[in-house]
Automatic annotation (TrEMBL):
Keywords, sorted A to Z: ATP-binding, Nucleotide-binding
Domain AAA: 149-311
Gene3D superfamilies documented for this protein: 3.40.50.2300, P-loop containing nucleotide triphosphate hydrolases (3.40.50.300)
Protein name: AAA family ATPase
Source organism (scientific name): Methylobacterium adhaesivum
Domain of life: Bacteria
Signal sequence interval, chain numbering: none
SUPFAM superfamilies assigned: CheY-like, P-loop containing nucleoside triphosphate hydrolases
């Protein structure tokens, strides 16, 4: 069964490539800002933290241009915040935004800040995610569409069925959650998404990755192949005419364009450990690690969870799915033992069913299309609802007996 205790948090849009300078009065606040600077959503920003509060900020910009965002900590009247803001206004460049972190919950003081053009007032002590949210909101256009959620699916080792899970998950989100979804096959040389969806698109992700200077929203739209009403595919060419040596930022533009266009992007991440694949996992909103119930998968999953937790301190842990559970005559590590060793719950356990999964793969179909009532189909539905955060909107499946019952009723009536 899927673990429903971890519901998705609000999606915070990545902060654009800006400069932030903070002037703190306490070491605690300085440490929080340093922690926020290391968050995945701030990877494009340049953050500098120094002590001295508002007075130091005024002095720093008397003969220097101001950054995109100034963060000032004030401890109350003794910091003379109003005087500092008035002085800062005289040296502040147009367009610079100011965030104040205060220690006093005073409505009158807050109003004075707003009157002087302060963009946001945060009460100390603050969490890193609160500061990230505040900065992100400053650069989100009013009325802009919500940023799309990225779900990265990766195998703990090769051959554990991560791609199959990613494809079925994307199909289920699009169909049962009525959510526009893109499945992006990132295994450029050996990807199977086009086979599993019975598609043969002439173009795909290779054109986006190898021609970054041409990539924009219009080109990306032409590279997408329609699978159903709510599901489109960014396919991999699965050809070996060139080697695939991607830079760390190779997929940044592709992901940014997809996030601005559709509410859900499922990333089928190949089982490699490179700069670009690590960056992709770290920056994803949700991560699913697909494992087999055996020792090598356990070791690799534990290592991946450890690295991801270190690099994503403000996100909940990656979710773990066990696949191929219950294969006859194969010794397995139980889900309970697997979870205990990882110190994290198992989100779902998919049963081994060679006939069902083999038939779906050979037919270019999803599991629910082959057998709507299969246990795996229910598990995909639960995972999809959990990740999207709308389990109550799950679309009821049609009753397969209804056509038969209708025919019987017509026969009786005649």
């Amino acid at each position: 069964m899927a673990d429903l205790n971890q519901t998705p948090e609000r999606i915070i849009a990545p902060v654009p490539r800006i400069t932030i300078q903070a002037f703190c009065e306490t070491q605690d606040t300085a440490a929080v800002i340093e922690a926020a600077a290391g968050d995945r959503r701030m990877q494009k920003t340049h953050v500098k933290v120094q002590m001295g509060g508002g007075a130091a900020a005024v002095e720093a910009y008397r003969h220097a241009p101001t950054p995109n965002v100034i963060v000032i900590e004030t401890q109350g009247a003794k910091s003379r915040p109003i005087e500092c803001l008035d002085a800062l206004a005289d040296v502040c460049d147009p367009g610079t935004k100011v965030i104040v972190i205060g220690h006093v919950n005073d409505v009158l003081l807050y109003r004075q800040f707003i009157q002087r053009g302060v963009s946001e007032y945060l009460m100390a002590p603050i969490e890193p995610i609160a500061l990230i949210q505040a900065v992100s909101d400053l650069f989100s256009s009013p009325g802009a569409k919500p940023i799309g959620r990225t779900i990265a699916v990766v195998g703990a080792k090769g051959g554990v069925g991560a791609s199959t899970l990613a494809h079925n998950l994307a199909w289920t989100i699009a169909r049962e959650q009525d959510t526009a979804t893109v499945i992006a096959d990132l295994d450029i040389a050996f990807g199977t998404a086009s086979l599993n969806f019975n598609q043969d698109p002439p173009q795909g992700i290779a054109e986006a990755v190898f021609s970054p200077e041409r990539l924009d929203a219009n080109l990306l739209d032409r590279l997408l192949s329609k699978c159903s009403d709510n599901l489109t595919l960014l396919a991999a060419p699965a050809t070996l005419d060139r080697t695939i040596d991607l830079s760390e930022q190779a997929l940044d533009t592709v992901i940014d364009l997809l996030r601005s266009a559709v509410p859900c992007i499922v990333l089928d991440v190949p089982h490699v450990w490179t700069a670009w694949s690590k960056r992709l996992l770290v920056s994803a909103d949700e991560i699913l690690i697909v494992s087999a119930p055996e020792l090598a998968s356990l070791r690799n999953t534990k290592n991946m969870l450890s690295v991801l937790q270190q690099t994503r301190p403000n996100d909940h842990r990656a979710r773990v799915v066990l696949n191929g559970v219950g294969m006859a005559k194969r010794p397995e590590i139980s889900a309970a033992e697997f979870a205990k060793a990882l110190d994290t719950p198992i989100t779902a356990s998919l049963p081994f069913d060679a006939n069902l999964f083999g038939t779906a793969a050979n037919n270019g179909q999803m599991i629910a299309e082959v057998q709507a009532g299969a246990k795996a189909t229910d598990i995909f539905s639960t995972i999809a609802a959990t990740l999207i955060g709308r389990p109550e909107t799950r679309r009821a499946r049609p009753n397969l007996l209804e056509p038969l019952l209708a025919r019987l009723q017509r026969r009786k009536a005649s």
